[in-house]
Model the fold of this input.
Amino acid sequence: MKKIKINLRLNSYQILIGSGLLKETGQRLKEIGSSGRLVIITNPIVQKLYGNSLKQTLLKDGFEVTILSVADGEEQKSLETAGRLYTELSEAYTERGTPILALGGGVIGDLAGFVAATYFRGIPLVQIPTTLLAQVDSSIGGKVAVNHGQLKNKIGAFYQPSLVISDTSTLKSLPEREFVNGLAEVIKSAVIRDKDFF
Done:
């Protein structure tokens, strides 16, 4: 496993990268002081692939787990969906210290991050990206947002996660097109920033 420390003074966090890290999620959450109740926000596809097994692992580690599912697709990244999630978080007795685990690609990461940033004016967020694009881009840097009409990503905040867990084994389930999209982002970043990496 590789650890990368993002130094932001009070908002510093670690990015953990490696295969099989989903099984260690409970341990990693305890290391950052989480215990008790938590909420996983995901979509039905990722829930079937990884969410249900992650829930079982977390239950064994002593957590109380609620899964909130959002239909797949960019159109779900909206104020309307955020509003529904606020209601479901309240019904699940989510409190100020209850972490949200954003399990999925960029849509889930952006939406769940926006909800975490605004519910109780900010509750802990753990990004668990399952696509290459999300692992190299949207889960890092704290940009969270929703769309509204023709306004794409213009309603949002900068809200840093408490932790990012990038389990590279989840990339095996990606369609080739999604993997290529992630590689394009890696190449773009290398061209902009680092000649040796490029």
Remarks:
- The chain is about 40% helix and 25% strand.
- The beta strands are 2-6, 13-18, 37-42, 64-69, 100-104, 125-129, 143-148, 151-158, 163-167.
- The longest strand covers residues 151-158.
- Residues 176-193 form the longest helix (18 residues).
